[in-house]
Amino acid sequence: MSKHLTGSLKGGSVKAHGKDLDGVNPAYLRTFRYISYVLFAGGVLVLPSLVNGLQLRLATLASIWFVATMGLQVLMGQAGLISLGQAAFVGVGAYTAALLATKQDFSFLFTIPIAGLSGVILAVIVGFPTLKLRGHYLAIATIGVGQIILVLMVNWRAVTNGMDGISGIHRPVESNRVFLYICVSIGLAIAGALYSLRKTPVGLAFTALRTDETAAGAMGISVAWHYLIALMISGFCAGVAGGLFAYNEGFISPYGFDLGQSIVLLTMIIIGGLRHISGALVGAVLLVFLPPNLEFLGSSYMVIYGVAVLLVILFAPDGAAGAILKLRLKFLRRISGAQGKAANQ
Amino acid sequence: MDITLRQVQDFLQVLTNGVAAGAVYALVAVSFVLVYKAVGIVNFAAGEIVAVGGYIGVVLANILGLPLVLSLLICIVIMSFFGYGFQFVVYRPLKGKSFLIIAISTLATGIILANGIQLIFGPSPRRLEPLLSNPTVEVKGVFISVPNLIIIAIAVLTLIGVKYLFARTRVGFQMMSTAQDAEMARLLGINTDKMVSMTFMLSFAIAGLVGFLIAPVLYLVPTMGLGIALKGFAAAIIGGFGEVNGAIVGGLAIGILEILFARYLSSSFQSLLIFAVVLGSLYFRPEGIFKGEVGQKV
Questions:
Q1: Residue A328 located in a structural domain
Q2: Is residue A92 in a domain?
Q3: Could B42 and A140 be called an inter-chain contact, meaning their C-beta atoms sit closer than 8 Å?
Q4: Alpha-carbon distance B252 to B242, whole Å?
Q5: Which tens digit of pLDDT belongs to each residue from A160-182?
Q6: What is the spatial distance between Cα A87 and Cα B239, in angstroms, rounded to a whole number?
Q7: Is B182:B116 a contact under the CB 8 Å cutoff?
Q8: Of the given ranges (A240-249, A281-290, B288-297), which has the lowest mean pLDDT?
Q9: pTM
Q10: Do A310 and B89 touch (CB under 8 A)?
Q11: Which of B43, B115, B271 to mutate against chain A (most A CBs within 10 Å)?
């Protein structure tokens, strides 16, 4: 019991939130926020029109993985659970969208939500038996489900066409650039929904569960139910990402939905920053754009991934997004100076 | 339906292979459960650690040309030191951190190990030179592979040794009390840090032994860890997480089930079966075959 008490007193990010902004002039903070929103919106609108060729392709992939990684952020960063099968959820979404698009002639507007829904259904199937138990059961069950899905993709030829995969998935738009804008808008819409979720009872319950599961349960938060919601959100994001992925590639096969890809997605959110939704964006952009530029490392780049994850977890658990926010705070404190302190008192 | 002698012989042959595979899974599961019981860490690098053991065996026996038994002993010693060092990466600096953080650090260690092996040895399969040229014996028409027999024998001896350690020896009792309630054990004068270190060493020694044992039978590849770890996790879950007895029974059950399934039903859906069994056991019997407490206490 004493362990739990000290844990919740020291590690509570709820409390930390209020304290972080000490010494910052609220007016400066507000201005800074508006400026960064404008810069961000401008960047999102303008950057896709500037990139070309390979960079355009990478930007599309980054925005797709951003969607999948946001799901992991909710599950891991907010609810404190771990999934090692995110790529399988992505794969189910991709196959759902691909099958609906090629065999049933469903339009893009329907396949993407249904792909998201398929991820939710898989989440219920996986989460229902495991989430009443401790967290590590989910981790292992998600590896297991990932393997099952992979075996089905490879061997259930009647539906999935095995290793040959499914081809002939046509994008709703001709232009690569317009498709990138579509992916980015879907990503931003989901990000907006997830941002507003954080202030709702469900979002607060996630934080409570992550901080101290026992105490949260004692406060009347339904532990298993909220974990299941987190997994369903994560599954939805993965399913949508899978759908977008299928359209983007035009062809899908079991490659790219294995445990390796799950680990890449996990690496994205950890290096980007577990605690922040923006971490999903930072991580996806970093891990999509860096590998093609790190080719001189050859096959050792997976070792670098591992070392990077380990170092981030050991020394900077808030990742790149956390570091950026810390810099912001430092900057705001400096420009606030004595004035900010006065305003706070 | 007539059952011929040939079918019976075939069945027995398949069964011994299953028992050998099961013995390996049981050892992996025990190695993994020991650490879980002692410090509550789910070690996602468990499979890669087995792989490291196998590759150390290849270096000692094939490349340096040491005799097999000596290589095995050296391999086990190296692996124990590895286990001692491992805790300074994933356990001690992260004490008191959430399950998530620790799980990720073991996962990252696993990635580093698997890809480190690939960097050093390359992706092509390696194999420990087998001891015998004709490695099967025939008993009434049933062909049994000798490496499999050796695996079963060593596994049984090891498991008896582990059981003896925890049931009869002072160190074993101290390790067990540390696992059960570290604070209480420390109050009673047990050096809990030392006990945790010893648990890590024992766990890694067993993992190294497994790697060495399978090296002549299976080909070693850098990515082999995943498959082995999955079977070990599955065995641990079926047996009830954190139960040494359960891990043994779970390992055997998985080894036998999977090989019978592959032989008589379908080899391409073999790994589906294992995880279906795992998910099924989570639905219906999460406390494992031997009843134990696993549910969340609130």
A1: no
A2: yes
A3: yes
A4: 16
A5: 887 888 887 888 887 888 888 89
A6: 28
A7: no
A8: B288-297
A9: 0.83
A10: yes
A11: B115
